[in-house]
Amino acid sequence: MNETNVRRKTKKCPYCNKIITGRTDKMFCDDRCRNNFYYKVNNEQKTYIRKINNILLKNRGILRSINPSGRTSVPRRYLEELGFDFDCFTSVHKTQKGRLYYLVYDQAYSFDEDERISLVVFYRDAQAVVS
Ligand SMILES: [Zn+2]
Predict the structure, then answer these.
(1) 119 vs 84: CA distance, rounded Å
(2) FRET pair for 98, CA 20 to 30 Å: which of 8, 39, 66, 92?
(3) Distance in Å, CA 18 to ligand 1 centroid
(4) Domain ranges of the chain
């Protein structure tokens, strides 16, 4: 066996946690462990993305339902009571005056004084809507 192929440190299979024997570049015990590992990782990623998407869609639904005219202002507490998640948005828009609008797709919100939230329908490409 070539010297570079000799295992010097023990390496464990990331799926079953058994010590891997054989070539140093071997990552998993066998094809089954490799397939199971990537299946698990893929599932975890899908579950995570689904969870975030659900929060975003719920947030958008809340904003849309209380802002049918496209521009309004509500107390922050009102959004909280509806289960709005302020940590979950799709992008941030900063106006020329430095005001930040948090977008949930096309629904934007911004923090006002007195614990109020301004809501506006806003498309990222149409920058002139919010100034
Ligand atoms: Zn394994």
Answers:
(1) 13
(2) 66
(3) 6
(4) 3-129
User: 56 CA distance to ligand 1 centroid (A)?
Assistant: 37
71 φ, ψ to 5°?
-160, 120
* 12 contacts 20 by C-beta, under 8 angstroms: yes
Q: How many CA atoms lie within 13 A of 27 on its CB side?
A: 10
**Cβ-based neighbour number of residue 115 at 10 Å:** 10
pTM over 0.85: no
Task: Give the C-alpha separation, 66 to 78, whole Å.
Answer: 10
- List the shell of residues around ion ligand 1, using CB closer than 5 Å: 13, 15-16, 29, 33
pLDDT tens digits, 43-72: 999 999 999 999 999 999 999 999 999 999
